[in-house]
Design a protein that fits this description.
The complex is a heterodimer of chains A (255) and B (159).
Chain A lengths: L1 E5 L9 H14 L4 E4 L6 H10 L4 E6 L1 H11 L5 E6 L7 H5 L7 H7 L1 E10 L2 E3 L2 E7 L1 E5 L3 E5 L3 E6 L4 E3 L7 E3 L8 E11 L3 E4 L3 E5 L1 E14 L2 E21 L6
Chain B lengths: L1 H26 L3 E3 L3 E9 L3 E3 L2 E8 L2 E4 L4 E8 L1 E4 L2 E3 L2 E3 L2 E4 L4 E3 L2 E2 L2 E4 L4 E3 L2 E2 L4 H26 L1
Parallel strand pairs in B: 1-3, 2-4, 3-5, 4-6, 5-7, 6-8, 6-9, 7-10, 8-11, 9-12, 10-13, 11-14, 12-15
The chains are: A alpha+beta (255), B alpha/beta (159).
Chain lengths: 255, 159
């Protein structure tokens, strides 16, 4: 049995024809099922657990990167197969990593049911799926309890799992890094900032460290964005949870 | 018009993204220590390591270690092979080959199978190559013999 979790933004008029096409194709394949509509205040975990009790074996996320992060960060521990139907070209950077095309073509990938077990991150005993972003602040990072990384001034830390992180050295330059979800390690990007001029800061070249365990300790509380949600922390412990999610992926996946 | 532009940019971004993914998988670069970053402790990695900043403690990798010009390692190093253009203060144990660029400065002993040194590189330490251990013993014997001969001739000369 399939259960489809729709994001609230899909109620907009511009997505109506895409949703209609998707639902038609799902009916053609014979994999249509119950539809549940999420909003920002709904916790996905009890919703998924209720549906599993009622016999659901496949939970399909319908939306964009934000929906993907919101659902899986809470429901990753649930005993079911997850699927993803990305809607719209914008805000869908996770889908190409998983090899899933956007809009109605994603139904073909779902129908093929190619399952893979994927790794996810644990931050202070909570799951994070797409990306963790520590805004520039005075922090030190301890990797695998073995070595410590420090910078002379502020430092920005980005840990990527499914969502690639884009950055620029300067306005003209573009450099893109991609993380492979099944390589057995998470990847952390560290960008120290150095003072330039009176008030300005300049980004230095990034450092890249693959890791299984990491601790970020701040001199003062620092701002963290985890799967699109912002919190203030003073100590972060990150771990890798191996093969935690069973997910339907595409043939052209990047891992 | 604005929306058309953003779509084009998205397509370009996706194209670049696929190309760079392919490049990265080919390069297999794993760990990068950037400039103005200090690493302290037992720094080990299963993949390649590129050092552009400072490392204190010990460095260990089974693959390639490259130290760029201006970078500094104050540690004992163990690696599969190495390309050094910066400064290393500590003993180096390299399994395969070691390339020292003209800007390289090594203060410590080196144990390596194949060594190439560009003119201008500075080494202060002992270099050991496992391939010529047997020859060393033979040459040692010869030296002893030659020393005996010299001693004898000396005695004869003095006598």
């Amino acid at each position: 049995m399939y259960v489809y979790l729709y994001d609230s933004f899909l109620e907009q008029k511009k997505y109506k024809h895409i949703i209609k096409a998707i639902e038609n194709r799902l009916t053609d394949y014979g994999i249509s099922g119950k539809i549940l509509r999420l909003n920002n205040f709904v916790d996905a975990k009890p919703v998924i657990e209720d549906e599993i009790k009622r016999g659901a074996k496949n939970i399909i996320i319908v939306g964009n990167d934000k929906t993907f992060g919101l659902v899986l960060s809470r429901g990753a521990g649930c005993d079911c197969v997850f699927g993803f139907l990305p809607i719209g070209v914008e805000n869908n950077t996770v889908a190409p990593v998983l090899g899933i095309p956007v809009n109605e073509e994603s139904v073909d990938t779902l129908a093929k049911r190619k399952k893979e077990k994927l790794d996810i991150g644990l931050v202070n005993n909570r799951f994070f799926v797409s990306q963790l972003h520590v805004m520039p602040s005075k922090v030190q990072v301890i990797y695998d309890r073995k070595f410590k990384v420090t910078a002379n001034d502020k430092m920005e830390v980005v840990v990527c799992n499914f969502q690639p992180f884009y950055w620029k050295k300067d306005k003209k330059d573009k450099e893109i890094r991609v993380v492979h979800p099944q390589d057995g390690k998470l990847e952390a990007f560290l960008r120290p900032l150095t003072k330039s001029g009176w008030f300005g800061y300049k980004y230095e070249d990034p450092s890249i460290f693959p890791f299984e365990e990491m601790e970020i300790i701040g001199e003062t509380a620092f701002l963290v964005e985890t799967d699109g949600r912002q919190t203030k922390e003073i100590n972060l412990k990150l771990k890798l949870a191996k093969s935690k999610i069973e997910m339907i992926v595409g043939k052209n996946r990047m891992f | 018009m604005i929306f058309q532009k953003s779509k084009r940019q998205d397509i370009e971004m996706q194209e670049n993204y696929v190309e760079e993914v392919e490049q990265e998988t080919q390069d297999n670069i794993d760990t990068v220590v950037g400039p103005s970053v200090n690493v302290e402790g037992d720094f080990s990695s299963e993949g390649n390591i590129i050092v552009k900043g400072t490392v204190n403690g010990s460095v260990h990798t089974s693959k390639i270690l490259s130290v760029e010009a201006g970078a500094k390692i104050i540690a004992n190093v163990r690696a599969g092979s190495g390309i050094i253009a910066g400064e290393v203060r500590g003993n180096m144990k390299i399994k395969d080959s070691l390339e020292l660029a003209s800007t390289a400065r090594i203060l410590g002993d080196i144990e390596v199978k194949v060594l190439s040194v560009e003119p201008g590189a500075v080494i202060f330490g002992k270099i050991v190559m496992p391939g010529i251990e047997g020859v060393e013993i033979k040459s040692g014997r010869r030296n002893r013999k030659s020393e005996e001969v010299i001693e004898q001739t000396g005695e004869e000369y003095l006598g």
